[in-house]
Amino acid sequence: MQVFFNTEAKMEIIKIMKFGGTSVGNPDRIKALIPLVTDDDTKIVVLSAMSGTTNSLVEITDNLYSSNVNEASEKIEALREKYHQVVEELYKTDPFRNTGHELINSHFDYINNFTIKVFTKLQEKSILAQGELISTSLFQLLLQERNIKSVLLPALNFMRIDKDSEPDYFYIEENINRELEKHDPETIIITQGYICRNVYGEVDNLKRGGSDFTASILGAVLKVKEIQIWTDISGIHNNDPRYVENTKVIRELSFDEAAELAYFGAKILHPSSINPAREKNIPVRLKNTMEPEDEGTLITSDTKLLDYKAVAAKDGISVLRIHSARMLMAYGFLRKVFEIFEAYRTSIDMITTSEVAISLTIDNPEFLHQIAIDLKELGTVEVEENQTIVCIVGDFRTERTGSAPEIFQALNTIPLKMISYGGSPHSLSLLIDSSNKTEALRLLSEHLFN
Ligand code: ASP
Ligand code: MG
């Protein structure tokens, strides 16, 4: 791939390279990014916070909310110390070390400010933004020390969400392009993942794991050739390697298949991050910083169908079963059920119905209790927690015959509580008790992929 210009000599970005928390997780890992970002392609490098940092910042803000100022201060100082250590190892020369230490102090003095004031949502968001602000500053300083031409583009100057917390594409496109005009194509552009401004101009974020989303949004508005998401595993595996041995990397996935897998638990990609790329048909490649030669997984709009491509599982599911004689031959009953979930802004994952009963699953238990109480107006309600949705991605087009017999054969020792088929041509989902998850995943791998 090579650099080219359009008629206005505007910089054309070829690719987005997003590095996750583990890829910037320690000084050696950060240094290992240098050969990856110094190829000839014009690019934007999007960084997450160093792994663990956003979690620590969340703990700090939790303490500040409950006025545990001492605990918050202790945590702030421990994190500051950790970063001074990073600075010591990251840079070779004293002037850069000194600048690094100053940079760390300015961020942590800023965080410290909030220990003396009344703590608000706005301040929480400002603290959570520090992880990405620090990682990108440290990385840009490292490139400076190595005499590699780069610039830090503050995401807060162009990433913005609207009143529904959705990306404001129009604003983002205009503003990123304006920022890019100031730089020449040899410059490595570095920016923060995850952070943005909201409709009031305040510092906000794209929710946990949102750096992937930043990469995809930028890739879509700049119509790049490829969006690369770099982590510490070579792409999406056909089953969860934490529970099953001998999983294999899937080389090709469609956007739809990837979205199902990401949503149902393949931790590698933030589920909403697929949408902007899919909309503009920009390929997304998942790569491994530890094995940069590995081609990883490529997600595009057209890929080969396979009977079974992958299995993923999502825990923390609750099922609600409503039984009501009133449902028999009635119309409008489901609407009443759905309205209750809507009132609590709780989305439903899986549904199965019979003539007098309906089962639904949710993954956000915040209002489970209230929802169950409201549903009792409509019939008897049974709630079961600690459930897992197992999603099998493959060819489940409804015009096929013989889809899925291997799945039921494989799982004939596992009680299946709900089955969802026909909703998506790419997947079949099952609800099981979480205690049966490992066994179910293992059996599926054994029967479908061996
Ligand atoms: N640092 C943020 C988080 O941990 C965003 C990200 O890493 O994608 O959630
Ligand atoms: Mg991530």
Structure description:
With 450 residues, this protein is of the alpha/beta class. 37% of the residues lie in helices and 22% in strands. The protein is built from 15 helices and 16 strands. The strands form three sheets. An eight-stranded mixed β-sheet has the order 3-4-2-1-7-9-10-8, with helices on both faces. Strand 12 and strand 13 form a beta hairpin. Helix 3 runs antiparallel to helix 4 and helix 4 packs antiparallel against helix 5. It is globular, with a radius of gyration of 24 Å. The N terminus is likely disordered. The structure holds aspartic acid and magnesium ion. Magnesium ion binds next to helix 9.
For the sheet with most strands, the description reads: 8 strands, mixed
Q: Oligomeric form of this entry?
A: single chain
pLDDT < 50 stretches: 2-7
Which molecules are bound besides the chains? Answer: aspartic acid, magnesium ion
Global outline:
globular
Helix coverage percent of residues?
Answer: 25-40%
Q: How many strand units? A: 16
Structural class: alpha/beta
- Rg over CA atoms, rounded to whole Å, is 24 Å
Question: What average pLDDT do the residues reach?
Answer: 93
| End-to-end C-alpha gap | 37 Å
Task: Report the portion of residues in β strands.
Answer: 15-25%
Helices, by number, come to 15
Instruction: Walk across the major sheet and give the strand order.
Output: 3-4-2-1-7-9-10-8
